[in-house]
Design a protein that fits this description.
By secondary structure, the protein is mainly α. Helix content is about 80%, strand content about 0%. Helix 1 runs antiparallel to helix 8 and helix 3 (about 45-70) packs parallel to helix 5 (about 100-110). Residues about 1-5 and about 390-395 have low confidence and may be disordered.
């Protein structure tokens, strides 16, 4: 009986570890650009620091996925992910300088590269048919952890200063590390990933289409609402703690929209329509940010980004593996997540260079054009009929 209870205990433990992990990962991000600006760094360097987070994920996600499946173990990678997020927070504190920010943000990307192992391990504690529902459940821990972190940071930073946000990240990562040590591996047998599996999944035209659109989604996201919107807030006179309200204004509508997307009411819209609408909203967001005259207006506009994020990123995440056979869906998801890291890397760098050359307002206007063009491209690329996998004898 004890053996049957262990997966349940580990599942609950991993749920809490996940909340702490993402709480640690996002507790300080809104302060990076303002601190770099205070240190006299250019927008291009701010983009490089932000891009380091996406670059390390892009490089490591597929190799880590292959290695974890070959070893038939995912717990070590969860533990390593928690260790890296703790070291990232400490890195900012120990080397509080532009190079230190660059290295530490790269370490945070290494930590996030382990996210696939979090989802695979959590799913393995439950029957195979419950996989999608359980991953959605773990995503709730992801967003809930972030929201809890933001609310705590609003209270802590005014009392203890900006450095407390990095200490908070290191502490949350350290607690997650300690809590991850008792986790048990599932007894479910898994099939190791091979390069041939990756090649087979990567040839799927719909996965490729979603991956290209995913790159563009992250270009827009990490250039604006995950990146340089804080610069617009600082220009409007935002105090340090007030920057965190931008993150909350982004996250709450994201949570609401994620629930709506799975409801029956939204099924009257095609996934292609939702993604296109998401890009239209992000274009409108990019147009409105330079026009804001107060922080209140910026917070309200930030909610548009939250809805946009769900309609693009969340929809594409599920759609990317639509035509992938069941046994290769983990491979397909790993491929998709690695590829969209290109957008997380290049987007903020290009935005930073544009800001240095054209100014913050014009950079947002250029991003609005890119977002609209991305929406039109998504409308064209996602016009691929679902593949009838059951006719080929493949298990979906």
């Amino acid at each position: 009986m004890e053996g049957r209870q262990r997966p349940g205990v580990s599942a609950r433990l991993l749920f809490m570890v996940t909340a702490l992990f993402w709480c640690a990962q996002y507790s300080y991000t809104q302060f990076i650009n303002p601190e770099l600006e205070r240190m006299g760094m250019s927008a291009a360097f701010m983009g490089l620091v932000s891009g380091a987070y996406g670059f390390t994920q892009m490089v490591l996600r597929i190799p880590l996925g292959i290695l974890s499946d070959r070893l038939r173990r995912h717990k070590p990678f969860v533990v390593i992910g928690c260790l890296m997020t703790m070291l990232s927070g400490l890195g900012f504190l120990v080397y509080y300088s532009p190079p230190g920010f660059l290295i530490s943000r790269g370490l945070a990307g290494v930590a996030s590269a382990a996210w696939v192992s979090f989802t695979v391990l959590y799913s393995s504690y439950f029957p195979h048919t419950e996989g999608p529902r359980r991953i959605s459940q773990l995503n709730a821990a992801n967003m809930g952890g972030r929201l809890a972190g933001y609310l705590l940071i609003i209270l802590i930073v005014p009392l203890l200063g900006i450095l407390s946000a990095f200490w908070f990240s290191a502490l949350a990562g350290g607690i997650a590390l300690l809590m991850s040590l008792p986790l048990q591996e599932s007894s479910q047998d898994t099939q190791g990933i091979t390069l041939r599996d990756i090649g087979q999944a990567a040839r799927d035209p719909y996965l490729l289409a979603c991956s290209v659109i995913g790159i563009l989604t992250q270009v827009v996201a990490f250039s604006t609402y995950y990146g340089f919107t804080v610069n617009a807030a600082k220009r409007l006179g935002a105090a340090s703690a007030e920057l965190t309200w931008l993150s909350i204004a982004l996250l709450v509508p994201t949570l609401v929209m994620n629930l709506l997307i799975t409801s029956r009411r939204m099924r009257v819209f095609s996934m292609r329509t939702l993604v296109f609408l998401g890009f239209v909203l992000s274009a409108g967001y990019c147009i409105l940010v330079p026009l804001t005259g107060s922080l209140t207006q910026l917070y309200l506009i930030q909610t548009l980004a939250g809805f946009s994020s769900s309609l693009t990123f969340s929809v594409l995440m599920g759609q990317s593996i639509r035509d992938i056979p069941q046994r290769l869906r983990g491979v397909g998801m790993g491929f998709y997540q690695a590829v969209y890291g290109i957008g997380m890397t290049l987007g903020p760098i290009l935005m930073g260079v544009t800001i240095d050359a054209q100014g913050l307002d014009n950079a947002f206007r250029i991003m609005a054009v890119i977002s609209m063009l991305s929406g039109l491209l998504s409308w064209k690329l996602m016009n691929i009929p679902p593949r009838k996998l059951e006719k080929t004898g493949e298990n979906v």
